C-alpha cells in the first residue's frame, strides 16, 4: 500500500510538472550553454596566454635584414623591423604589440604597457631575445659560425600523459563542477518552488490533506520526481562538458578517453558523484520550499542554498586534505584527479555516498515536517 501511494504521487506529480517543449528545452539548454561557454572561455584564455606579439626595432635596414634572417626561426612571435623608439611606443600603446625592443648603438630597451599585456611569456622571451641580440651585435662573425653549427631546435615536453591530464582537470574540473552544480540548483529551486510551495499559492494544498496518502508520502513523491529531473539536467551538463573538451581540448580529450576505456570506474564514479550532488541539492531546496507558503519568500532564501553549493564546490581549491575527498560536492575534482592517476577511489566514494544519503534523508524528514507545520 505504501509503495502504491508513493508511485501514485510520483505519477501525479510527474504529470503536474510535465513541461512544455519550450520549458524542457530551456531546462536542458541552459546548463549545456553555460558549460560550453566556460570551456570555450578557459580555452581562449589559455591560448591568449601562450600566444603573443612582440616587435624588435633596429636602427637600419641592413642590420634588420641580418637579425631577421638569424632570429626569426627562434623567436616565432617576434617581428623585426627598422624604426625608432617613438614607433615602438605607438605600437605598444595602440595594443598592436605586447612589447617592443628598441635597439640603439649603446642600449636595448624593452617597452611594454602592463595594463594591456596579455602574456607574461612575452616579457620573458623579450629578455632572452635582448641577451641574444647583444651577443649577435657584438660579434656577428662568431655568431654566424655558431648558428651554422647549431642543430635543429625541437620542443620536448617531459610531462607524462597522466600529469597533463591531471593538470587539465586541476584547472577545469572545479570551475565546471561549480557552474554545473549551480545550474542543477537553479533547476531544483524552480521545480521545488512550483511543486512544493506552489501547492499553497495555488490553494490546492487543502485537497492534498484529503488524499489517502499522508502528507509525508506526498512530499516524498514530489522530491523523488524533483531528484530525477535535477539528475537529468546534471547528466546533460556533464555530456556538454565532455563535448566541449572534445572540441577545444582534443589532446586532453584523447588522453581522457584512453584512460576511461582502460578503467571502467570512470563512468561509475562520475555517475555516483552526480547522484550524491543531486540528493543534497534536492534536499536543500526542498527544505527551503517547505518552510514558506509563498514562492517569493522561498526564492529569497534560495540564494543561501546557492552559496552553500558554491562554497562546497570550491573547497578543494582552499583546503588540501583527504577529508575533502569524502565530502559530497567537494570531492568532484579530487576524485577525478585520482582516477587520472589510477588511484583507489572506492572508500572516499562510499563514505561520501553514506554522508549524502544521511543528509538527504534528514533533509527530506525535515522538509516534510516543515510542510506539515505550515499547513496548521
Topology:
Layout: H1 2-16, H2 21-50, E1 54-58, H3 61-71, E2 78-82, H4 85-93, E3 99-103, E4 108-112, H5 120-138, H6 140-149, H7 161-201, H8 205-209, H9 215-248, H10 250-262, H11 265-290, H12 295-318, H13 332-340, H14 346-373
Parallel strand pairs: 1-2, 1-3
Antiparallel strand pairs: 3-4
Report a brief summary of the structure:
This protein has helices at residues 2-16, 21-50, 61-71, 85-93, 120-138, 140-149, 161-201, 205-209, 215-248, 250-262, 265-290, 295-318, 332-340, 346-373, and strands spanning 54-58, 78-82, 99-103, 108-112. The protein has 376 residues and is mostly helical.
* Unreliable stretches: none
The largest β sheet comes out as:
4 strands, mixed
Work out the number of β strands: 4
Mean pLDDT: 78
* Share of helix, binned: over 70%
Strand order of the largest sheet: 2-1-3-4
Computed CA radius of gyration, to the nearest angstrom: 30 Å
| End-to-end gap | 26 Å
Q: Order of helices and strands, N to C?
A: HHEHEHEEHHHHHHHHHH
Amino acid at each position: 500500500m505504501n509503495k502504491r501511494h508513493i508511485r501514485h504521487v510520483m505519477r501525479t506529480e510527474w504529470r503536474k510538472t510535465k513541461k512544455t517543449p519550450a520549458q524542457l528545452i530551456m531546462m536542458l539548454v541552459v546548463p549545456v550553454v553555460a558549460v560550453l561557454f566556460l570551456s570555450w572561455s578557459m580555452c581562449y584564455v589559455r591560448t591568449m596566454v601562450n600566444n603573443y606579439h612582440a616587435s624588435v626595432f633596429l636602427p637600419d635596414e641592413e642590420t634588420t635584414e641580418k637579425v631577421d634572417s638569424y632570429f626569426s626561426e627562434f623567436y616565432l612571435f617576434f617581428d623585426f623591423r627598422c624604426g625608432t623608439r617613438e614607433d615602438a611606443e605607438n605600437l605598444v600603446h595602440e595594443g598592436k604589440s605586447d612589447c617592443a625592443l628598441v635597439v640603439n648603438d649603446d642600449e636595448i630597451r624593452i617597452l611594454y604597457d602592463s595594463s594591456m599585456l596579455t602574456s607574461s611569456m612575452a616579457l620573458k622571451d623579450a629578455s632572452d631575445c635582448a641577451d641574444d641580440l647583444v651577443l649577435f651585435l657584438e660579434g656577428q662573425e662568431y655568431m654566424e659560425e655558431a648558428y651554422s653549427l647549431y642543430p635543429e631546435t625541437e620542443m620536448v615536453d617531459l610531462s607524462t600523459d597522466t600529469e597533463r591530464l591531471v593538470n587539465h582537470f586541476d584547472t577545469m574540473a572545479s570551475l565546471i563542477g561549480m557552474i554545473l552544480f549551480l545550474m542543477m540548483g537553479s533547476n531544483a529551486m524552480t521545480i521545488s518552488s512550483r511543486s512544493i510551495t506552489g501547492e499553497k499559492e495555488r490553494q490546492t494544498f487543502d485537497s492534498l490533506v484529503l488524499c489517502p496518502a499522508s502528507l509525508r508520502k506526498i512530499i516524498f513523491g514530489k522530491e523523488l520526481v524533483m531528484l530525477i529531473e535535477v539528475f537529468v539536467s546534471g547528466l546533460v551538463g556533464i555530456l556538454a562538458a565532455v563535448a566541449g573538451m572534445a572540441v577545444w581540448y582534443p589532446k586532453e580529450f584523447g588522453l581522457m578517453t584512453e584512460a576511461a576505456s582502460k578503467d571502467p570506474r570512470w563512468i561509475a564514479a562520475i555517475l555516483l558523484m552526480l547522484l550524491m550532488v543531486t540528493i543534497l541539492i534536492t534536499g536543500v531546496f526542498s527544505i527551503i520550499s517547505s518552510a514558506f507558503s509563498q514562492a517569493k519568500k522561498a526564492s529569497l532564501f534560495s540564494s543561501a542554498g546557492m552559496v552553500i553549493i558554491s562554497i562546497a564546490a570550491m573547497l578543494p581549491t582552499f583546503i588540501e586534505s583527504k577529508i575533502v575527498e569524502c565530502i559530497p560536492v567537494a570531492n568532484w575534482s579530487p576524485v577525478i584527479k585520482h582516477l587520472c592517476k589510477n588511484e583507489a577511489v572506492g572508500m572516499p566514494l562510499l563514505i561520501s555516498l553514506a554522508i549524502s544519503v544521511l543528509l538527504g534523508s534528514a533533509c527530506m524528514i525535515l522538509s516534510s515536517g516543515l510542510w506539515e507545520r505550515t499547513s496548521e
